[in-house]
Design a protein that fits this description.
Layout lengths: L2 E6 L5 H10 L3 E7 L3 H11 L3 E2 L3 H6 L4 E4 L6 H10 L3 E4 L7 H14 L3 E3 L7 H11 L6 E9 L2 H13 L3 H5 L8 H8 L6 E10 L18 E10 L4 E7 L11 E7 L2 E5 L4 E5 L3 E3 L1 H4 L20 H5 L26 H14 L7 H19 L5 E2 L11
Parallel strand pairs: 1-2, 1-4, 2-3, 4-5, 5-6, 7-10
Antiparallel strand pairs: 7-11, 8-9, 8-15, 9-10, 11-12, 12-13, 13-14
Helix pairs in contact: 4-5, 5-13, 9-13
């Protein structure tokens, strides 16, 4: 089987994924939609896509089988629900949504329609997560009782440019997006290893002091002045998970923006920007070479033509030795990937799920567990760290 797909939003990320969908043998046709028609036309020409459409509504009224949503992060929830209700399978960039109510409506729509929903959380295939997931499945950690997932991406290292690119003259209103409402790169890397979920949280938000109009409550469309936040989560298995979301930080996020630590009763795993180690009760083992990606294509490759220069490094990383290269289609050999090798796996997961009628790994129920803890954490920070309960929507059904 194979299916057609429409990609919504082809600014910095969507066009790259449109290219990967086009390369996949499980996809027949790829169309694009963007609020700026010239972007859609450029994406079609650059990647040899099958056409453009004038609006999201036109796309939903068409006979395409699926949509992939790469719009502004706070818009995903309503667009996903609308697409599912229109009979389309949905791939969505992160986050799943920005409220518990939006998450609930997506899950209900998936249950009622039986369609495939997948959230493209890159940390699920972060090499550190893959390595730790394999070690945990083999019982090497013993019981993991404490874990950390950090998303340390300084505004000066790409985010100013990205928000200016997407936000126009009023970009500062959106650049203040609350860090804990974008939690999945940190949380997903931990819960992508542990078969558990968060049940409560206490979070401290750090108010910004740069004074440049970003993270300014009087400017922010979100009323947010936190540029950094730290959350401590209680997990349902009795363990603890700590998450940092940092936007003002002296850290080389262009080298590694998501980093993880796991402590078990028998072994532990720790990661910094350039070194990753596995430790047991006797030794420290440097495993950096197993989780480091290698560039897959040169910077001047034509497939990068639609990617902003400051973001190109994020799109050329190849796979790491720990990745299962054999499961990917031959068409992806030498093709661009990104976020430490995750992009090709995420597209392949979605295509496989649609064509086989199965649940993707980061399905609606898993996506809720990656997303909702951050939403509640932000609420906790707004209440001076009050410990708040986190709703759980349960496990995914055995079959859709």
């Amino acid at each position: 089987m194979a299916f057609s797909i429409g990609v919504v939003g082809v600014g910095q990320f969507g066009g790259h994924f449109a290219h990967l969908f086009k390369l996949h043998p499980g996809v027949t046709e790829v169309y694009v939609v963007d609020e700026r028609p010239e972007r859609a036309a450029a994406a079609q020409a650059t990647w040899g896509l099958d056409g453009t459409m004038d609006s999201f509504e036109e796309l939903l009224a068409s006979d395409v089988d699926a949509v992939a949503i790469f719009t502004q992060r706070w818009t995903h929830g309503p667009l996903v629900e609308q697409a599912l209700r229109a009979g389309k399978h949905v791939y969505s960039a992160v986050p799943m949504a920005v409220s518990e109510e939006e998450i609930e409506r997506i899950i209900e729509a998936v249950k009622e329609t039986g369609l495939v929903y997948a959230m493209g959380e890159t940390s699920y295939y972060n090499p550190a997560t893959v390595y730790a997931r394999n070690q945990h499945a083999a019982g090497k950690f013993g019981r993991i009782f404490y874990s950390e997932g950090d998303y340390v991406h300084d505004m000066d290292l790409g985010f100013y440019d990205a928000y200016q690119y997407s936000g126009g003259d009023r970009w500062k209103e959106t650049a203040s997006y609350p860090p804990m409402l974008y939690p999945t790169h940190a949380i997903g890397g931990v819960l992508g290893v542990l078969p558990s979920h968060a049940v409560s949280v206490s979070c401290i938000g750090v108010k910004d002091d740069r004074g440049d109009g970003v993270f300014d409550k009087d400017v922010s469309m979100f009323g947010n002045d936190f540029s950094n936040a730290t959350a401590l989560f209680e997990l349902n298995d009795g363990g603890a998970m700590r998450t940092n979301e940092m936007r003002r930080v002296g850290y080389p996020s262009h080298i590694r923006e998501s980093r993880f630590r796991f402590f078990g009763t028998e072994a532990s795993f720790e990661q910094i920007a350039t070194v990753t180690v596995w430790q047991d009760k006797e030794n420290v083992h440097d495993i950096s070479d197993q989780v480091e990606t290698r560039p897959s294509i040169p910077l001047d490759d034509p497939s990068l033509a639609g990617v902003a220069p400051e973001l190109r490094d994020a799109f050329i990383s190849g796979l790491a030795p720990v990745h299962d290269r054999g499961r990917l289609p031959d068409e992806y050999l030498g093709a661009p990937t990104g976020h430490e090798g995750s992009h090709q796996f995420l597209v392949d997961d979605f295509v496989t799920a649609v064509n086989t009628g199965t649940l993707p790994p980061v399905n609606a129920w898993v996506a809720a567990r990656f997303t909702l803890p951050g939403i509640v954490a932000h609420a906790s920070a707004q209440q001076n760290g009050e410990r708040l309960a986190i709703r759980d929507f349960g496990d995914a059904p055995a079959a859709q």
